[in-house]
Design brief:
Blueprint lengths: L1 E10 L2 E11 L4 E5 L6 H9 L8 E6 L2 E2 L5 H7 L1 E4 L11 H7 L10 H7 L4 H4 L10 H15 L3 E5 L10 H13 L3 E6 L2 H4 L4 E6 L2 E6 L1 H11 L18
Parallel strand pairs: 3-8, 3-9, 6-7, 7-8
Antiparallel strand pairs: 1-2, 1-4, 4-5, 9-10
Helix pairs in contact: 3-6, 4-6
The chain binds adenosine-5'-diphosphate and magnesium ion.
The site of adenosine-5'-diphosphate (ADP) has 10 residues, from helix 1.
């Protein structure tokens, strides 16, 4: 359903993504394992189409259509969602309304209370609370994840759901991701933890902007342990960009 063909993203004189290839199947959980600074978030933003993350070359095929020229809103309309960025503020509406809004195009609704429980928020305390500045960053992130559960996107990109302040427990994250996949979403699960990568159907190792290996998680984590720890690439001198003249 998602096919990345030789995507390259250049910043200054560095190839942050370097002719990267990746495929994600329908309803597949695909984990991306990589050390810090190797390009994981950049990859997430490039797939989502954030303004500063337009690729310089390559193809981003989403259900057969090249979406590289589409902006973030257009990609969101196709069913691509990015989690764990700073959650969007829907000031003034309640959590309940927000979680209903997230699934307005779905005939079968998932009860907002159910989504909140999955992300570890007590429905009694949060369901009818207004979304405003009194919510902490961690609470906002959880509500955003609950909205992804309600929304059931075609592709959910989760950037290190296991890190940051007030992160969900491993079991909670696993439950959320398995629920997403069970409801038909493909999930790109970005992490630098082997244990988290292991819950996927397939896993890929990202190193210095390239996918080095894609396989079942057991093989990929073994590869990661043998080749990426300690990392010998990311902190090396900058990779020269080949100039075409
Ligand atoms: N806006 C930017 N300008 C220049 N370099 C950047 C920018 N954003 C990220 N980078 C660099 O790109 C590399 C990959 O970053 P990132 O995708 O955040 O890695 P990861 O998520 O794997 O930790 C890092 O070396 C980082 O310093
Ligand atoms: Mg990152």
């Amino acid at each position: 359903m998602l096919l990345l063909k030789k995507i390259t993203l250049i910043r200054g004189n560095r190839r942050i993504l370097d002719e990267l290839n990746l495929s994600v199947k329908p309803a597949e959980i695909h984990s991306i394992l990589g050390v810090n600074g190797t390009g994981k978030s950049t990859l997430a933003y490039a797939i989502m189409g954030l303004p500063e993350y337009k690729i310089q070359s390559g193809k981003i095929l989403f259900n057969g259509k090249d979406i590289a020229a589409l902006n973030m809103t257009e990609r969101a309309k196709l069913g691509i969602t990015l989690g764990w960025q700073e959650p969007v503020r829907f000031e003034g509406i309640t959590v309940y309304e927000y979680l209903m809004l997230a699934q307005r195009d779905k005939q079968e609704k998932i009860m907002p209370a159910e989504c909140l429980t999955k992300v570890g928020l007590d429905e009694k305390r949060y369901l009818f609370r207004e979304i405003d500045d009194t919510l902490s960053g961690g609470e906002r992130k959880r509500i955003e994840l609950a909205a992804i559960l309600a929304q059931r996107p075609k592709l959910a990109i989760l950037d290190e759901p296991d890190s940051g302040i007030d992160a969900l427990s491993f079991e909670q994250i696993k439950d959320v991701i398995l629920t997403l996949a069970a409801n038909g979403s493909s999930v790109i699960l970005i992490t630098h933890h082997e244990q988290m990568a292991a819950i996927a159907d397939r896993s890929s190792v990202l190193c210095a902007g390239k996918i080095l290996k894609t396989s079942i998680p057991e093989e990929v984590t073994r590869f990661f342990r043998n080749h990426c720890q300690p990392c010998t690439h990311v902190n090396q001198p900058e990779i020269e960009v080949v100039k075409n003249d």
